[in-house]
Specification:
Layout: H1 10-19, H2 29-42, E1 46-52, E2 56-63, E3 70-72, H3 77-84, E4 88-90, H4 103-106, E5 113-120, E6 126-134, H5 142-187, E7 194-196, E8 202-205, H6 207-213, H7 217-220, H8 234-247
Length: 257
C-alpha cells in the first residue's frame, strides 16, 4: 500500500481547514443531502465528505458507512485526491498498486471502486473531498464526473457559508456585549448621554439626559429631543446639528433648554 501523500501546500491547507471550525461539528442537513445526491447520481452505496486533518480524515457527512466518523490519514484514499488537487478515480482498487494491499480493500468494508473530487476553497486551499465508493469495480461516466465536481463546489459553498454565518453570529454577540457595557456605563453616568444614528436621529438617551431635557426616552427619539431646546435657538441648533451629522464632524455648541 502506498503511504498517503501530503498536499503541495500542506500547512496553508491545514490552516484553511482549521479556520472553518468544522471538525467534530454536528451534522449539517444540506451537506447530508449533497452526499445522498452524489451516491444516487453515481449509483454507488457509499458517499462521504472527507476532511483531511493532520493525522486523520474526518467525515462531515456520511452515506453508507453508518457509525464511522474518521479513519487514520494513512488509510485515506482521499489524501491521494487532495494531494493531486484534481478528481481521482480508482476503477478497481485490487488492480491498483497503491491500494491493492489496503486493509479496506483486502478486508471490510471491501472497497473496490473510489472516485473523489477535491474541496477547493475560494482561496485555493484544498481541505478534503466529496467521494463516492463501491464494493465492486466500475467507471463513472463523463456526466457523473461532471456532477461530482459540481457537487464538490456546492459542498465548498456550504462550508464557507457556515463559517460566514458563524462570523456574523459572533459579531452580533460582540455587538450585544458592547451595547450592554455601554448602557451599564451610561446609566450610571452623572452626565447626560445622547446617542444618534448616522442621519442625526436620536436612538438612545440615558436617564440623566431625560431629566435634563424633561422628555421621556421615547420623546427624545428621532428629532423629538429638539423640543427641549429653547424656541429662540431651536432653528440654529438643529441646522448645526444636521450639518455635523452630514459631514461626520463633531457637534460643539452651547444652547438653552
Amino acid at each position: 500500500m502506498t503511504p498517503s501523500p501530503t498536499r503541495p501546500n500542506e500547512l496553508q491547507d491545514l490552516a484553511a481547514l482549521h479556520a472553518l471550525e468544522v471538525l467534530d461539528s454536528e451534522p449539517q442537513p444540506e451537506l447530508d443531502a449533497l452526499v445522498r445526491v452524489a451516491s444516487t447520481v453515481c449509483g454507488v452505496p457509499i458517499s462521504l465528505i472527507s476532511l483531511i486533518d493532520v493525522e486523520r480524515q474526518w467525515f462531515k457527512a456520511n452515506v453508507g458507512l453508518p457509525g464511522e466518523q474518521e479513519t487514520p490519514r494513512d488509510l485515506a484514499f482521499c489524501a491521494h485526491t487532495v494531494a493531486s488537487g484534481d478528481l481521482m478515480e480508482v476503477h478497481d482498487a485490487r488492480a491498483d498498486a497503491r491500494f491493492a494491499r489496503h486493509p479496506f480493500v483486502t478486508g471490510a468494508p471491501g472497497f473496490r471502486f473510489y472516485a473523489g473530487a477535491p474541496l477547493r476553497m475560494s482561496d485555493g486551499a484544498v481541505v478534503g473531498t466529496l467521494c463516492v465508493i463501491d464494493r465492486q469495480p466500475r467507471r463513472l461516466t463523463e456526466a457523473q464526473r461532471s456532477v461530482l465536481r459540481d457537487l464538490a463546489c456546492a459542498v465548498v459553498q456550504a462550508l464557507e457559508g457556515r463559517r460566514a454565518m458563524q462570523a456574523v453570529q459572533a459579531a452580533a454577540r460582540d455587538l450585544a456585549d458592547s451595547e450592554a457595557r455601554f448602557r451599564t456605563l451610561s446609566e450610571s453616568s452623572p452626565h447626560g448621554v445622547f446617542y444618534a444614528d448616522a442621519a442625526g436621529g436620536c436612538v438612545y438617551t440615558n436617564e440623566r439626559w431625560q431629566a435634563l431635557s424633561g422628555l421621556s426616552s421615547a420623546g427624545n427619539l428621532g428629532r423629538g429631543w429638539a423640543a427641549s431646546i429653547h424656541p429662540d435657538e431651536r432653528p440654529t441648533v438643529l441646522a448645526h446639528w444636521l450639518k455635523a451629522a452630514q459631514t461626520r464632524r463633531d457637534f460643539d455648541l452651547e444652547f438653552r433648554l
